[in-house]
Amino acid sequence: MPTIHYILKDGSTRSVEAKPGASVMETAIRHNIRGIDAECGGSCSCATCHVYVLESDLPRLTPPDEMEDELLDGTASARAPNSRLSCQITVTAGLDGLTVRVPETQV
Ligand code: FES
Questions:
Q1: Which of 15, 45, 49, 55 meets the CB 3.0–4.6 Å disulfide criterion with 86?
Q2: Any idea where the 2Fe-2S ferredoxin-type domain is (predicted)?
Q3: Beta partners for 16?
């Protein structure tokens, strides 16, 4: 199973095995990763699943669609070029080793 690395607010890293087909947000919730709230449950309407993707991992992701792009303008922590909504990133074998950083705040 692919491993996803989450860098937490305290600087520590949690590495968890993710089920292919699940989102990076769902994987975080399943493993009690703190700092990813996901208030809308993954329907791309809350922006509380915001993460910063490791720059070197960005080429492995498909770019955000229009809806995600719009929501990223409303994140609680400042949007950066590597900002993504973790509910919109589906885990695949090709994403093994993906690293995302949890933002300072989601609300
Ligand atoms: S969980 Fe709400 S936008 Fe991702």
A1: 49
A2: 2-106
A3: 4
